Amino acid sequence: MSFLVGGGGDINTERVELVVDDAVARKATGKYTETMERVTWDVSDLRGKTARIRLVDEAGGGWGHINFDDLQVEVAPPAPATLRPEKDAYGAGEAIVVVVANAPGNSGDWITLVPADTPPTQYREWKYLLSQRDTKITFAGVPAGTYEACLYYNHPAGGYNVRARCTVTVR
Fold this sequence. Notes:
Strand order of the largest sheet: 10-9-12-13
Number of strands: 13
Shape: rod-shaped
Distance between the termini: 51 Å
Radius of gyration: 25 Å
CATH architecture of the largest domain: Sandwich
Number of domains: 2
Largest sheet: 4 strands, antiparallel
């Protein structure tokens, strides 16, 4: 993220703050000039957190002010959801564990285990992710064959659009 800052230069009395979880994560101030300069903060360590900008002006006198303009925040798209079987292959009738990563965390996100090439509108055993983004889901054992675990977002509004899938081999 970046922004322009100018004005007073006393970090104790006039500043720009980035506040995360009610704590100040970053601070910047001017350089006793009305000419604003760009400040850039690497906020990659704060990904997934909610932040706010707070302007502090507690000073008086000639340089007792802060100038702030042109806040720019680059929002990277979230990593796509992924599924993978916990094991390379399962035995017939063995419980199947599917590892879910980066699901959106909606209360209606769900996963099903179906024979390969099953149309997306059909499902068998299914389970909600219960708003979890990263989890493991266990399915009852199935006969030998090739299966797919399919992830759907936000039932029922998300429809039957498979958002992530993985192949599960049962021998």
